[in-house]
């Protein structure tokens, strides 16, 4: 099981989880000569193609320190574009000085502006078991999780200054019997979830082989030019003083390693652990998927605030965790465990909250920002975006992403109504653009934007047919796609479930509703093509625009909400064709309903043909009299 610091301990490693000095001294020398040749060969598409990461992730062990032998070292290969590993820990060479200089300047700026409260927070998440720290991302479900999993920590506050000794997490003496650190006990009511977290953080998830392979020092050992300069002095605690503008948080000064050979900065082990735990929880509790992704990125940022890691370290930790999580979840050996963890979490939280599978999402988002720091979606978006790239700037033309093999498993429970190919397309169309060094390494795992992917497609490059069944419950019964969707393809909605489109959509292939409900939750939700409602219901939540023609067949329904003083609920640029057996349902806005006797516009168009067979008002107090014209439809609301 991982230690609280996120490193794995075996007989061949020291107490910090690194190789003993006898091997560590040669690790950088073993790795250094291979990088340039391997990358050149990869760029030239050498005859010996490396295996896909998900098929090769078990090679991530301390015996393998080269990209040829270790899948994690390979996917982190973008780092070798900016940094050439030296023969020792302090002899590396910047290959892109401008990137690494920006990296160090960022770290210096963050640590110099750090407040006392931020320093204490950085200590808390440095010392607390990472799997436990991630639980807060569950929001209103967090305390229920801790109780059910028997998850505990002894690190609940930070000292005002430097503590007299090193501090490690432990099970408190007064903890209930059977309690465990991290994700909790495997024998608890949420034991399968805890086991899934620990499995993702298992024996092949350590960042230590990559640390030895890259030998990139921690920021507090480097100056602005990424050079290591030992001043020959020691601080009050007896640690060597390096020429650096990066200041370690006072609470963590004793947590520094005294063996720089065994203490590489890239990739960040804590960051790797945060994201691995977060993606495991997100698989089991997808109702909090985006909030858990946000939490992982926020906790990872505290590594920079602490002065313990740099931006490139944190980016590397995220990349390796994304690949490792996908590989572990895609591994057939874990198929039963991941299914059991999801089922256990769903059953447990329904029992404890009284929610159903269809209402659990609402419960999981029922708290305000006073108790759930991730309750504001806009804030989450602003947190996530910059931390996917940090100081990196984009260069070169856009290159489409080939989604890494197996990556689609990361969305398996969040988008359960899509098949594997569709989930891959979601990942592709929401990915970060190419051209960011570090993100463009082998298989380009760093380009995946899981926060955006949880909001559905970013583009319909071909026609998309989605089937959602209400009987499946949860996201199958109701989901929202919040991205701004473009592309030349169109959307066909099938099945009895409900899908809401909320973005500023520009896809041109048209929209078809065959069954269930499609909600147009923004004015441009329906894109730039024709709209055909051949069955089911098109629901217009406020006002929507159809840039082509609108056709509604027999038995199909249009459901609109009317508000006093507003223009037509549905504006159609071309023509409207209505079957005489089609249905119009009218709802009155709760805050500003139209007055009785008012004539309210419903459809505005260039040409209207046909009439609704039935017009109903979702209120026993009113009835509606339709008023048809060549350019649209209005209704007169009358009291019954």
UniProtKB/TrEMBL annotation:
Domain Phosphatidic acid phosphatase type 2/haloperoxidase, first and last residues per copy: 190-329
InterPro entries registered for this protein in UniProt: Autotrns_rpt, PAP2/HPO, PAP2/HPO_sf, Pectin_lyase_fold/virulence, TAT_signal
Presence of keyword DNA damage: no
Keywords: Signal
Family matches, as SMART domains: acidPPc
Protein name (Swiss-Prot/TrEMBL): Phosphatase PAP2 family protein
Pfam families per UniProt: PAP2, PATR
Top-rank taxon: Bacteria
